[in-house]
Amino acid sequence: MLLHLRAFAEALFSTEAGPPPAARMDWLMKEMKDYLQRAGAWARFVFGLALYVVVWLSPLFIRKFPTLKSLEVPERVEALTLMEESFAAAPVLAVKAFLCVVYYEHPDVQREVGHVGPSTFPMGLLP
């Protein structure tokens, strides 16, 4: 499952410069494995089912076969974008949501998106 999840994540978080660094993807996969182990059997099943649907169905949106992992990163991005804009968006959004929760916890990502920690806010301005 993690190999397919990594293929999804590389596409989801890629930029014009390409996918995120391998070390960051390694970290994400380690964190996702831990997250899913703690989530429980039902959550793992639902997440795995959503990922399975995306892995096998998304390449068909760009007339490719067999799985998302077999595509180049730009093709993955296109396939996921088209699937997310279609009738079959729900599984893409489910996997995307879980990945984003964990990915944006990485300190390098927080710096890249301009996250300012709560300790830097003036008193009284915290939500």
What does this structure look like?
The structure is a single chain. The protein has 127 residues and is an all-alpha fold. It has one domain. The chain has six helices and no strands. The chain has helices at residues 2-12, 22-39, 41-57, 73-84, 89-103, 107-112. The termini are far apart.
Topology:
Blueprint: H1 2-12, H2 22-39, H3 41-57, H4 73-84, H5 89-103, H6 107-112
Summarize this, please?
This protein has 127 residues and is mainly alpha-helical. Helices cover 62% and strands 0% of the residues.
The description of the largest β-sheet is: none
Class by alpha and beta content: mainly alpha
The CA-CA distance between the termini, in Å, is 37 Å
Shape: globular
Instruction: Note poorly predicted spans.
Output: 119-127
- How much is the radius of gyration in Å? 16 Å
- Domain unit count: 1
Helix proportion = 55-70%
Per DSSP E runs of 2 or more residues, the count of β-strands stands at: 0
SSE series: HHHHHH
Mean pLDDT: 91
Number of helices: 6
Strand content bin? under 5%
